[in-house]
Amino acid sequence: MNKQTPDNSNHSLESQVNEALDSSVDNLSPDIRRQLNQVRIKATETRTNTKLFWKSASAFSLAFALVIVWQFQTPENENIETPFADVLQEDLEMLDDLEFVYWMSEEEPSATL
Amino acid sequence: MIFAGVFGAECELNISIEQFLMQVEKKAYRMAEIATNDSHDALDIVQETMIKLVEKYADKNAEEWKPLFYKILQSKIMDHFRKQTVYRKFFFWKKQNHHLEYSESDSNKNVGYEPQNHAEDLRSPERELIGEQKVEKVTQALKNLSVRQQQCFMLRSWEGLNVAETAKAMNCSQGSVKTHYSRAKESLKKAIDDE
To answer: Could B134 and A10 be called an inter-chain contact, meaning their C-beta atoms sit closer than 8 Å?
Structure first.
């Protein structure tokens, strides 16, 4: 006797059901297929738009940060002596000369060789 | 160049998830349609599932998408029935099209079920095929199951998920999956063999 084992009967049942379901999917109406297509496109477009926005925002923020950092960098300045020091030195020398001149002018009448 | 690389990688990711959705959309629709007995509701459920998967889990590895997708799908189907339960309480005088109560304890309870031509969304010429009767019979038998049993059977047998993956998708224990599956097989065998 060819006794059908539970595994065989279950396999047969599952195969029947799977085949029927596959057939029902393969024979979906064009309207349903079109609507499924639209649903899928809408779902993936949502993701693309969101990611594109955040990518653009991140790129812009990075560029802005780089500009800010570059702006705050200053070149090294050479030490420049203030001209006032030179003027001051020159004035001191001039004052010494003036002092000598005044002294000479005061002493001149009494100056003897 | 940096931007092009980043955007190029993003485009490649989108194509992959789109291809995945193309693979599963028809089966998901059929599962939802068998559960809800309404093609519009089924399309809404599939749309919500796709949007949630893409928004929340597109960055996951591709091998995680399938169990995640079906987990979300099952969740949306259950949400649909919860809304129907609330709707029925407030608008109890209105006729209901949805045939199955959402209940873990129910096995073969049909509430307000009205048999419909399950092949109505098939192509017109195909309706002449003999196989349509088979499809009708199997679909009818599936719809006579409780939601949990029919979804469990389809996930395990038709979609090929293992027990652990099915349990994760249905948010139940592996023992429950085995019980649902076993009862579903019994009922289906009886229904298909009796006709």
So the answer is: no
